[in-house]
Amino acid sequence: MSDPLSRLLETRDWLLADGATGTNLFNMGLSSGEAPELWNTDQPENILALYRSAVAAGSDIFLTNSFGANAARLKLHGAEGRVRELNRIAAELGREVADAAGHAVVVAGSMGPTGEIMAPMGALTHEIAVEIFHEQAEGLKEGGADVLWVETISAAEEFRAAAEACQRAGMPWCGTMSFDTAGRTMMGVTSAQMAALVDRLAHPPIAFGANCGVGAADLLRTILGFVAAGPERPVIAKGNAGIPKYHDGHIHYDGTPDLMAEYAVLARDAGATIIGGCCGTMPEHLRAMRNALETRPRGPRPTLDEIAAKIGGFSSASDGTGEEAAGRERRGRRRG
Amino acid sequence: MADDDIILSELDDEELVLQMHDDLYDGLKEEIEEGVRILLDRGWAPYDVLTKALVAGMTIVGADFRDGILFVPEVLLAANAMKAGMAILKPLLAETGAPKVGKMVIGTVKGDIHDIGKNLVGMMMEGAGFEVVDLGINNPVEKYIEALEREEADILGMSALLTTTMPYMKVVIDTMKEKGMRDDFIVLVGGAPLNEEFGRAIGADAYCRDAAVAVQTAKDFMARKHNSLA
């Protein structure tokens, strides 16, 4: 039995995912500090509007408003007892919008990081991390999500824990990590390492890739890193609409709809199949991306120089792939 | 491999300190504890053990993190090893009246619930020998002010991950100015959407790109503070 996302992937050679959740909700009046997931019950009409805006802009896939709806994050708002409910409703609202779309739209149950640091560096054990993700996964499943969508992960350990949780829930899933530190994740994972990690999972994702990070150009470099590893499954590109800039007391992302359209075409040419945005990506960006993907022909795989020329340069000279690890010279060998 | 085993107690002082730098780099907690005890048994002043063995070792770790050779997991293991050594030294340092490295109050600003960067800075500051008072997430200005005064802190660290919350840092700094207490503290700010220009614009002492830079910046400012007092 195949799932709706796999069926869609069989008929299309690219799919448009959605844009920002946070940026859009802030524009609807979410105050900072508030958990966006509480709006699933407090302001459900805003969440429906968010989902509908993505579908209306041409998204084939949209993510539910459940990014931080795990016990570790909700605890910061005293809402750790509402994990199941908030995830179920996030997915139910998504189901309502997708089923009314009149064409196939995939409801992807967003699962963000726990925010905790995993053992042995931090206190969060694998077992507890799996339980935290599993509780969320069951809520999303119950609400009717088509797939689970693990995103913005930094640590390989946390990615593995989320994979196990999806398996425990018996759900297909997609997974993306955030490469924001000199081309690696905060925890040092390179694109090549993530591609290898995905292939070793007992319950591998339908598709894997990158989201958020440092802007559209860096994200495309990461995509080229995945593709160089010869992945067996579709690659996901969900980059930010440029970089946040501070001007006279307010902040905006500097990526225009035109830039994101260029990014979408480059992402497809680089080898990504599922293409969307992340922070700062609004419906007008999505419409421009959809239009570009539909009207512009496929081109050859872009080089780093071509990417930099079209949408801007990279945040670091290297992304940590294709080089020998520079180690520090040690005095002697330790027992080991 | 028995041949490769290093017996810490058989090394002379200089060798042992260098080995401890390596062991910190590798995040070997028990070896660091053993090294600290050996140096103390040899009559080293606790403050010398702290600065020459531990802080000097963490400086190497910080430099390699800054240069992209080490990443957060390795640095956290090193900081954990450092903390284990520090736990032995802490009571002795208090007894001997040794100079303190410094005390930092840290928290994410009002409206911001993203705390992983703040937690990393806290752990690495502790790893560098600082005392850290963690106020957690979503802090209104009153909470920062109250903690700075109560703790007699040297440094205020504020973190924001959202473009919508970073302007609140200015509210905190402006309030400190109004109360005439701004110059009593070193104010460091950090978080993904910030940059140096922003730090300057709101009147912080420094923007810190990552946790290693935060530690180094804090150390530099503390050194200046000690110099100006001397």
From TrEMBL, chain A:
Any single Pfam family the record assigns to this protein: S-methyl_trans
Binding-site positions, Zn(2+): 212, 278-279
Keyword Signal tagged: no
Cofactor: Zn(2+)
Domain of life, per lineage: Bacteria
InterPro entries in alphabetical order: HCY_dom (IPR003726), HCY_dom_sf (IPR036589)
EC code(s) of this entry: 2.1.1.5
Sequence ranges assigned to domain Hcy-binding in this UniProt record: 3-293
Bias (Basic and acidic residues) ranges: 295-308
Positions of region (Disordered): 295-336
GO MF annotation terms: betaine-homocysteine S-methyltransferase activity
Keyword annotations: Metal-binding, Methyltransferase, Transferase, Zinc
GO terms, biological process: methylation
Keyword Cytoplasm attached: no
UniProt cross-references to NCBIfam families, sorted A to Z: PRK07534.1 (NF005718)
The protein, known as: Betaine--homocysteine S-methyltransferase
Organism (species): Albidovulum sediminis
UniProtKB/TrEMBL annotation, chain B:
All residue ranges annotated as the B12-binding domain in the record: 101-230
CDD domains: corrinoid_protein_B12-BD
Pfam families in UniProt: B12-binding, B12-binding_2
SMART domains according to UniProt: B12-binding_2 (SM01018)
Positions of the B12-binding N-terminal domain: 7-101
Keywords: Cobalt, Metal-binding
Protein name: B12-binding domain-containing protein
Organism: Albidovulum sediminis
Taxonomic lineage: Bacteria, Pseudomonadati, Pseudomonadota, Alphaproteobacteria, Rhodobacterales
